[in-house]
Structures are given as structure tokens and as C-alpha cells.
Amino acid sequence: MITVQFLLTALVVVIAPGTGVIYTIALGLGQGRQAALWAALGCTFGIVPHLAAATLGLAAVLHTSALLFTAVKWAGVSYLLYLAWQTLRSGGALNVNAARTTQAGWTVARRGALINILNPKLSIFFLALLPPFLSGNAATATAEMAVLGAVFMGLTFAIFVLYGIFAAAARRWLLGSRRVMTWLNRSFAAIFAALAGRLALERA
């Protein structure tokens, strides 16, 4: 069940920069290590509903229900555009600036969780990723899916924490220049907007 092949596959998926990684890096640069850890925690727990949906077969319902898929998708698109705006707006929640601002940990985590919760493709992704690594015993399939999902979440949290720590360490080197800060904020905003555009083009 938990094979080297599964671990390598999961690791490749987690390492690939996505919305959660960008969010965690932005928080690490803007607010430091503690905020990045909360961001990593939130993004990780945002996976839980999708893993549950894949385990219980609800992902197939989402896949076949165009209305439900579209509703969740456009909520996700709107949220990503909101994050892009928060990155560009002076004093915004994700704006990177030299004066470190501190937000409540749960606020940072909740925002990170919503990034993944509002991405309907994740449920379908897990429905495709996990079953090939099951033992084939129908009686233990649900438990095996839960274990594989837990391992995937553990890897996600660990890798995101590493991204966040790296970003926090780089903060003092990158934020000495107003030009660099402007470039970072515009880059993060462009990435969130691009991710929103990609999500908008997704089909069930």
C-alpha cells in the first residue's frame, strides 16, 4: 500500500509549485516563519474535504454534477482573484512589505484552507491518484485510502513548511529594496490571477 512508488509520486505532486505553495511563500516573505507555518497548516487541512470525498465516492458525484462543480469552481476563481488584490493593495493581507505585519494564526490558516477547499479538481485528483496504490481488498479499501491520504497530508505539510522557512529566511535579503518588494507583490498577484484563469478553464 505505502510503497516507494507512492511516496515518490506524492512527493513530486507536493513539491510542484501550486496555489498553496505560492500562498505559503508569500506569507513567509511578508510576515515571517510563524505565519508561514500557519499557512502550511491551513493548506494541509484544506485537503481533508477532498480526501474524504474521494474516499467516500463523493468525488464522482462532483465530477458528474456540472452545476455543483461549476459553483465550487467559480467560488475558487473569485477567491484567487481576491488574493491577487490583497497582494497588490497596500496593507492587504498578502502584501509583502518591509514593515512586518502580524495576523492571527487561525486567520492565516483559514485563508490557506479555503484555497484548497474551493478547488473542485482536488477531489477528482485524489480519486485518480490513490486507488492504483490500494491492495485490491474491498474490505479494507476505505481504511487504506485514509492511510494514504494521511501520508499525503504529512508530506504536504512537511514540504510546505520547508518552503515557508526558506521564504522567511530570505525575507531580510529581499525586502531591503522597494523595487524588489514591488516586483514581488506584482509577481504574486500575477500568479494568483493566472491560477484563477487556469481554474476558470477547468471542466468537470
Mean of residue pLDDT values: 86
Radius of gyration: 18 Å
State the secondary-structure class: mainly alpha
- Note the main sheet: none
Outline? globular
Query: What number of domains?
Result: 1
- Give the low-pLDDT segments: none
* E-strand count: 0
How much of the residues is beta strand, in percent?
Answer: under 5%
User: What is the ordering of alpha helices and beta strands?
Assistant: HHHHHHHHHH
Q: What count of helical segments does DSSP give?
A: 10
The amount of helix comes to over 70%
Cα(first) to Cα(last) distance is 28 Å
Explain what the structure shows.
The protein has one domain (20-200). It is globular, with a radius of gyration of 18 Å. By secondary structure, the protein is mainly alpha-helical. Helix content is 76%, strand content 0%. The model has no long low-confidence stretch (mean pLDDT 86). It has helices at 4-15, 19-31, 33-45, 48-56, 58-64, 66-88, 105-117, 121-129, 141-174, 178-200. It has ten helices and no strands.
Briefly characterize the structure:
The chain is an all-alpha fold. It has one domain (20-200).
What tags apply to this protein structure?
mainly alpha; 204 residues
Show the helix and strand layout.
Blueprint: H1 4-15, H2 19-31, H3 33-45, H4 48-56, H5 58-64, H6 66-88, H7 105-117, H8 121-129, H9 141-174, H10 178-200
Helix pairs in contact: 1-9, 2-3, 2-7, 2-9, 3-7, 3-9, 4-8, 4-9, 5-8, 6-10
